[in-house]
Design brief:
mainly alpha, 3-stranded antiparallel sheet, 18 helices, about 425 residues, two-stranded antiparallel ribbon
Length: about 425
Amino acid sequence: MIETIRNAWKIQELRQKLLFTAFILLIFRLGSAIPVPFINTTGLQSYFDAASSNILALMNVMSGGSYSSGTVFALSIQPYINASIIIQLLTVAIPALERLAKDGGEDGKRTIERITRYTTLALGLLQGFGYYTLLRYNELLSNDGVWAGIVIVITFTAGSVFVMWLGEQITEFGIGNGISMLLFGGIISRLPSAVYYMYIGVTNWANGVTDESSIVIAGWAVPLIIIGMLLLVIFVVFISGAERRIPVQYAKRVVGRKMYGGQSSNIPMKVNMSGVLPIIFAQTIASIPATVAAFVPSLEDSTFMQIFDSDGVVYAIVYVLLIIGFSYFYATIQFNPVEVANNLKAQGGFIPGYRAGRPTADFLRRVLNRITMFGAIYLGIIALLPIITGNLIGLSALSIGGTSVLIVVSVALDTQKALEAQMVMRTYKGFLN
């Protein structure tokens, strides 16, 4: 990765794109440090420190800590991500949107993007109002008047829309996918504070602090955490590049005086087609009880909440089952065996040992189910390991570490591939020379 960036820096155009991406990330971090008026930021930070690991904690990680600080970019890129997922699902469910996405060309693509932007605005308003309700219910406002509420909601919404625009600028003029880069920047920005909290935890352990409100980490647990994170990164890198390649043979055919076909190819099927989306959606749904308790403090100590504790067995089982379900759902959306089989048949291709048409589709469906199950188990391991580790060493904040590592590693690999592809394009001289 470092060598790739060093080589890209030598090319002027890529150097400008890297600097532009860094500049946008700087703006993103500056906006994440500007507080919204009328919010008691000290009380809000204390509330998040005392809260359990729920969807609010996940959103705080994704925003780089700005969610717990009540800043302008508190909602971060979450409204745009949710809007993109919703429009993607509606594209499959609504025939008109499906035709627009497949047959609309550039105009259809721009229309889908415009609909996604409007949906982002609506979700920003909804989430901004929900955040304001949370602040008001927990008495975290210095002014709970109507005007203060309007200012807070509009500021949160405007911040989410501006972050969406920043992501689009990175995608168009920078390096990599803008939304992924903003998520990457937000998570990486939490690294210094994580190291600081680890230092505080070890110091408290050495001094014999036993207060439940204080962070206490055993000294012997630190090397295990570091080694575990390195092994987790290696595991994610290995699975991210793993794929099943199905051989395809094209029959020879004569068109006019030329012969086409006869070559061999393959259909690559990635083990983890869905990326981190199943984990995010599963964690969102599994954390609904804890999130409801955050809005209704009287439910925090109820039996129902104890059953669905984010560090408990029931939560872990529901979490894994949801990950498996969403993995199959997204794999079905991204890879259609019937469509792939029909395209192979139309192009004169076939999988050795299987007839074209329905037998090929059935074979692809079986392979897809097996690969998806393996990918779902992989995501389940990524999600459960931090929870198990957190219970062993008594640090519940690690329960969201697996998602963060998966996002960071995936974005780093995708950015490296994008840089290498652009360097190849600019150094390849072609056949004419």
